[in-house]
């Protein structure tokens, strides 16, 4: 017995119209957020740094992102999902057209087939961001117009659970295109090659005490707050760091984003201290924004342009 379509006004034209509406709805369905998880969303997929064949080069950090304006590097960032990059809120300079470069350790790749350059479709700054004097809630999310395909050169870094505790003394790595001085002038320019440095997490109270020695703020006013994480380095000079760049830590074989570079102690001052936005304090917020963005499809609104066209196609056979 044939199924009746009378309730749907099942003439030939109406049937075709329902088919068009069905396929239009499929196109509008946003992808499920992929915050460092594989296709079945059960096993974490955390990127892993690796060395190029030329061992003289530094490691390749596959989540490293360069936030750019008109092909000029302005800040670092970290890929956390096929469509999302996390960076520092103070990097966002008003109503600018941003793009993100992925898959390269040099700011000026020459014909590299694995380097991606993707426009930014949407930017979400944390509502409690405060950029005066000592920055607070210095975190922003950038939604890419086109989702990336993970490969050897482009991989996400995993987010920590909101209740995870990065212990004092944990060894981590900071990467970025930090500012360097040109020999012929005092002008600072981004380093052409990605640099990396080993750092260690220190206690917030000790970090706060050191910063207070160089300020007029009373001790009762904390400069290093719970939503920040502080590191030190006992060797290389980390002056002129790359704002928005990732602080990555290997925990039980997985690479996790511990912080986003925010600000640092004055150059040439020992010890070298750097302050990051503590990601664990924003893990829930990040997941909420990514899930909300996936439901609304803020970076895929171009599909809406096709809906009127689909619905206005001739329906007679």
From TrEMBL:
- Origin, by domain of life? Eukaryota
Location, primary (coarse class): secreted
Show where the Peptidase S1 domain sits: 44-291
Q: Which GO terms describe its biological process?
A: proteolysis
Give GO cellular component annotations, separated by semicolons: extracellular region
**Protein localization:** Secreted
Q: One of this protein's Pfam families, by short name?
A: Trypsin
CDD domains linked to this entry: Tryp_SPc (cd00190)
**Keyword field:** Disulfide bond, Glycoprotein, Hydrolase, Protease, Secreted, Signal
Which SMART domains has this protein been placed in? Tryp_SPc
Q: Which InterPro entries match?
A: Peptidase_S1_PA (IPR009003), Peptidase_S1_PA_chymotrypsin (IPR043504), Peptidase_S1A (IPR001314), Ser/Thr_Proteases_Immune/Dev (IPR051487), Trypsin_dom (IPR001254), TRYPSIN_HIS (IPR018114)
What Gene Ontology molecular-function terms does this entry list? serine-type endopeptidase activity
Which region is the signal sequence? 1-36
TM annotation in the entry: none
Family of this protein? Belongs to the peptidase S1 family. CLIP subfamily.
Q: What is this protein called?
A: Serine protease 45
Q: Which organism is it from?
A: Mus caroli (Ryukyu mouse)
Ranked from the top, the taxonomy reads:
Eukaryota, Metazoa, Chordata, Craniata, Vertebrata
